[in-house]
Amino acid sequence: KCINKADVLSANSMVAQENLKHFFLRDVILIKNSLEIDKLPEKQIGTIRKIFVPARISPLKNQKLIIDWLVEHPTYDVEIYFAGQISDKSYYELLLELVKRYRLSDKIHFLGFVTDIRSLYKNLDICILPSFSEGMANVILEAFAYGMPIFVSNIAMNMLNENAIRYSFSPTSVDELDAVFHDFCNLSNEQKYAIQVSNYEYVKREHSVEKMVKAYDDLI
After folding, report:
1. From 34, 52, 117, 121, which residue has the greatest number of CB atoms within 10 Å?
2. What's the average model confidence in pLDDT over 200-218?
3. Closest C-alpha among 39, 43, 36 to residue 124
C-alpha cells in the first residue's frame, strides 16, 4: 500500500535500487546512507590481535562462524569482541555453550549493546562482518571512516569497493574466512595503510552527509 501511494521511491544502495525496480517496475532514486566523516585517524595496523564483530546477536548475523573459526584454529593469538544487543536468546546461549565447550572464554568477549562505538573502532585492530543478510551496512561505512580494515561476507550488499570484494568470504565457509585473514596478515604495514586510505577516500566521496543532504534537496 505504501509503494502504491508513493510519488517517489528511493533506496540507499544500488542492490536495493535494483530490487525495487525489479519488483515494482518503477523508477527508483538512489540516495546512499551517510555518516559524519572526520579526518582519517592515525591508526597503524600491525599484528592482528583484537577483532571487532559489531552486530546484534542473531543467527542472521552469523557470529557462530567466528567461533567455529577459532575452534578450528585454537593456536591463534587473537581475541574476539562481539558488540550488540541479544535479539535471539537461544542463539546467544548456543554461542555461550560453544565458548564453554571449547574453552574460549579468554578469547571471546560479549560486550552487549555499546554506546561508545568509536572507542572500539579506535582501539581494536580489524572488523569482521559475517552476516547472511544486510541492508546498507553502516558497519562497513564506519570501519572505512575510522580507518579499521574489515572482512565481509560476500553478499551483494557488502560489495562496496575493491577492498570489500578482495576481503570477502562465504558466510558458510570457515576456510574462506581464514584465507582472507591470512591474506591481510601477510601484507606489509604500508600495504595495510594503503587499504585504510583507499577505504577512507571511498566513504568520504560516496557517503558524506553533505552529499546525502544535497541529493534529498534535489529530489524535493
Report:
1. 52
2. 93
3. 43
